[in-house]
Amino acid sequence: MTTCPICRSEAAALPKTGDADGFDCHEHGKFKVASSVFATKNPNREQWEAALKRAETRQPDAWAPVILIDDFR
């Protein structure tokens, strides 16, 4: 188990692919976060949720959309 970066609840870890960590959260579903986000950002929950929506919009058919640093702009 790990912690969802969006809501801070327990989440299952998805397999790491490339430089992205994966999460399976009961509230936010399956998604991945690029390492650059953790290295350069300290977003609040509202910013995280907006970034997830952008990632889902950009990757509508993705099994687990990847949140990139650009999704916070």
Description of the molecule:
- With 73 residues, the chain is an alpha+beta fold.
- The protein has one domain.
- It is 27% helix and 33% strand.
- It has 2 helices and 5 strands, in the order ββββααβ.
- It has a 5-stranded mixed beta sheet.
- The protein starts with a strand and ends in a 6-residue tail after the last strand.
State the distance separating the first and last CA atoms: 29 Å
- The total count of strands amounts to 5
Mean pLDDT: 95
Side by side, the strands of the main sheet go 1-2-3-4-5
Q: What does the main sheet amount to?
A: 5 strands, mixed
Helix fraction by DSSP (H/I, runs of at least 4): 25-40%
**Proportion in β-strands:** 25-35%
**Overall radius of gyration:** 11 Å
**Based on CA inertia axes, which overall geometry fits?**
globular
Provide the domain count.
Answer: 1
Helices and strands, in order, run as EEEEHHE
Number of helices: 2
Low-pLDDT segments, ≥5 res: none
Helical/strand content category: alpha+beta
Features:
33% strand; 73 residues; alpha+beta
Q: What's a quick, concise take on this entry?
A:
By secondary structure, the protein is of the alpha+beta class.
What's the structural blueprint in terms of helices and strands?
Blueprint: E1 2-3, E2 10-17, E3 20-25, E4 29-34, H1 35-40, H2 45-58, E5 66-67
Parallel strand pairs: 4-5
Antiparallel strand pairs: 1-2, 2-3, 3-4
